[in-house]
Amino acid sequence: xNSAIVKxxxxxxxxYNLGPLWxxxxxxxxxxxxxxxxxxLWKEELLTKKLLEAAEIFTPDRGGERRAIYFQNxxxxxxxxxxxxxxxxxLYAAVQLLLPGEVAPSHRHSQSALRFITNGEGAYTIVQGExxxxxxxxxxITPKNLWHGHGHIGEKPxxxxxALDIPTIYSIGGTFFEPYPDRIETPKRPDNFSELRYHGxxxxxxxxRYSQVAPLANYKWEGTKAAIEGLMNFDPxxxxxxxxxxxxxxxxxxxxxxxGAWMQKLPKGFHTKAHRHTHSTIYQVHQGxxxxxxxxxxxxxxxxxxxxxxNWAWHEHVAEVDSYLFSVNDLPIxxxxxxxxxQAFDANNGYQKVESEFKPVLx
Length: 363
Ligand code: GTQ
Fold this sequence. Notes:
Layout lengths: L2 H12 L6 H8 L11 E3 L1 H14 L10 E3 L21 E7 L4 E7 L3 E7 L3 E5 L2 E4 L5 E4 L5 E5 L5 E7 L1 H6 L5 E3 L13 H5 L20 E2 L1 H11 L10 E4 L14 E7 L8 E3 L3 E7 L1 E6 L2 E6 L3 E4 L5 E5 L3 E7 L1 H6 L5 E3 L11 E2 L6
Parallel strand pairs: 18-23
Antiparallel strand pairs: 1-19, 2-3, 3-10, 4-9, 4-11, 5-8, 5-10, 6-7, 6-9, 8-12, 13-14, 14-21, 15-22, 16-19, 16-21, 17-18, 17-20
The structure holds 2,5-dihydroxybenzoic acid.
2,5-dihydroxybenzoic acid (GTQ) binds next to strand 3 and strand 10.
GO molecular function: dioxygenase activity
Keywords: Dioxygenase, Oxidoreductase
InterPro entries: Cupin_2, GDO-like, RmlC-like_jellyroll, RmlC_Cupin_sf
C-alpha cells in the first residue's frame, strides 16, 4: 500500500462529503470512554455575584425566559451555539435567581428538568396546575412536556439549582418548546397537592398503583434527611457514604426518567474509596467542607459550590466536617443504552495519589 496514494485518496473523497474510516477509527472508537468534559469546580461566591449582577440587567418576563446562569464545561465549548449548554456531555446545570414579586412565565419543553433549592423561601413553581412552595434542601421535578412557571410571593431572593438533559435532547434532535398562552398557569389544584398526598413517605395513594409521570413533585428536605439518618445505623457504602436516590413512588424508577438525583451524607473524616463509572455527575455542596480527588487532582469544596465529575474519571470524596452532597447524574441514560460499567481503583489501598490542586476562578 502506497501511503501517498492513500493520503491523496483520503483527501479526494472528503470533497464529496465522504469519509475514510481507516483514518477515523481510532478517534471514533476509543478503547474506553474519553470524556470531552473536564473535571471542574465553580465557587459559590462567584455564582452569587454573577446572579446579582444579572438581576440588575435582566428580568424574567418574556417568552418563558429565566434568569439562569448555566455551567459551561470548558471542555465542551466547541459545541456551537452556546456550547450546547453542556455541563457534562449529556447534562446541563444552572443556578437560577427569582426575586420577590417576579414571575418566570410558564412554558413546556421536551427536555426534563429538576431543581434543588439552595437559598431562600417564598417562591413557588407551578407544575400541572399545582403551586409548589420551595424551601432549602427540597428536590423538585418537572419531567418533559409539563407546563411549568415560577412565581415569588415571599420576601427574600431565591436561588436554586436547575438540571436538565438539554445536551442530550439537542444532540439527538428532539427539541420541542412552547410558551404558555398566558403569562403563568392559574392554579387548578390545592397548593402543595402532591406532597400532601405523599406525606407518609413510602406509602402511596391507592390510585397511584400504576405508573405516573410525576406523582410527587416536591421531595422535602426533612424526609430526605430522615431517610439518610436511618441509613446511618448501618455501614456506609464505601464509595458513596450514606446515599439515597430520589425515586418515582408510583413505579420505583428514578424521579426523572433521564436523570438520576442523589443526596449523600459524608460524616466528618469520612474518605470514600476511589472508583470510576461510565456515567457523569454534577455535584452541589449542600452542606459541609471537604475535597474530591478527580483523576489525581484535588478539588476543595465548601457549601454552595458546584463541581463536575466527568464520565470514566477516577474520583473519591473526603469530608472535613459533616457534609451533604446533592448530585445529578446521567446513569438512567447510560442504563437505557446498557453502557454502565464501574471499576474500583485497586492500587494504593484504593486511594489515588494527589498530584495537583485545582485553582478555581475567584471573583
Ligand atoms: O426554570 O423552567 O435553567 O425551562 C433551563 C430551562 C430553567 C425553568 C433552566 C428551563 C428552566
